[in-house]
Amino acid sequence: MRWKMNFRRASFGLALATVLTATAFVQAGAEPLRILIPAFKGEPVISRVISMTVYFNMIKALSGPNTAERGIWILYGEEDMQHASHKSAEAAASWPSVSADIAIWGKTTRVGKGFVVEPFITLSSISQKRRVRPDKLKAVFSTAEGRYDLSIASPVRFFDLEPFAVSADITERYGDYADGIAIYDSETATTPKAHTRDVVHFLEIRRNAARIRDSHNREGWIHLPELSRDNLTIVSFGHGMIQFLRGDWKDAIASFTDVNKFTDLPNALRIDTNLYLGISRYNLGQSGLADFRRAMALNAYDRNAARFLLLGYLLDYRRSHNSALLKSFDETMKRTRILFAKDNRWFQNLQQVARELRLGGTDNQ
């Protein structure tokens, strides 16, 4: 697999942008995912090191054995956003020169002899306009009454992730990237042979290093340092979101399964994690009903979880014709009816499809 990374100036004020794109993105039907990682808010040098290290950790999302050749662009900015907020992240991602689907951003605060990093993820409005929408759970039913498209995607677009601490010597351990990215003779070498701000072709991506060739035809390795020795939600959830939005379902399931292992995960983030797990399984031809049930069990009044659970029952019944699924559907319908407006068209169509399924009057799309 070959990738390339291109440093360039962006017109909206990011002094340095990094583009990582698969050579296969020009294939018919391909639609590269675009990710923005602006400099984190905070002390300039530390914030640059943190955001670059986050950038390198996100590249690792492409090192899995199931990574597909769908293309990805990762843009990195040396300048931080106007404000450390979801609104500013949305604005930065929406500039024509960027047009990013997802922004991974944050802020750093000095605490004692180290720093606390608060990371966030924003899904931009651009991600909702993609021609290919891997984030949607697709469900189309044809009945005697007509064709019903019950496909849904999660409306959640902002994720507040777990803060983490870094020591003050992070610039000594990783460098400050002032001269660009260091190129080494091997993945374990400690002394760089060159630095680059130029186009880089990724020849191989591993967990801790990547083999590259730059536009001057120099080959070597760049290091992909860890953010922390501890497992972090920014890494597991960030990987999961990138893999999910690319349609790398097996890798997404592995990453979101890791996220679920965090014992202190906020309830809202655990709900989203289980919903993404369920959608990924359905896209692999499996059932994600158990994941949707776990999401609903975390908050009985979460309308988003209710939508996926109700649709999951119908999808599973269409495949298995297990009457117990329709019974569970009816019970869930009664409990969650209060969450939907009386004139909610999606909910009305869901009820109609359920009636047709009982009569055996739907096809098996």
Question: Could you characterize the architecture of this molecule?
Answer:
35% of the residues lie in helices and 24% in strands. The protein has 10 helices and 15 strands. The radius of gyration is 22 Å and the shape is elongated. The strands form 4 sheets. Strands 3, 4, 5, 6, 9 and 10 form a 6-stranded mixed β-sheet that branches. Helix 7 packs antiparallel against helix 8, helix 8 (303-320) packs antiparallel against helix 9 (323-336) and helix 8 (303-320) packs parallel to helix 10. It has 365 residues and is of the alpha+beta class. Strand 5 and strand 6 form a beta hairpin.
List the helices and strands and how they pair.
Layout: E1 3-8, E2 17-22, E3 33-39, H1 44-59, E4 72-80, H2 86-94, E5 102-111, E6 114-123, E7 140-143, E8 146-149, E9 158-160, E10 164-167, H3 170-174, E11 181-183, E12 194-196, E13 200-205, E14 209-214, E15 219-223, H4 233-246, H5 249-259, H6 267-283, H7 289-298, H8 303-320, H9 323-336, H10 345-359
Parallel strand pairs: 3-4, 3-5
Antiparallel strand pairs: 1-2, 1-13, 5-6, 6-9, 6-10, 7-8, 11-12, 13-14, 14-15
Helix pairs in contact: 4-5, 5-6, 6-7, 7-8, 8-9, 8-10
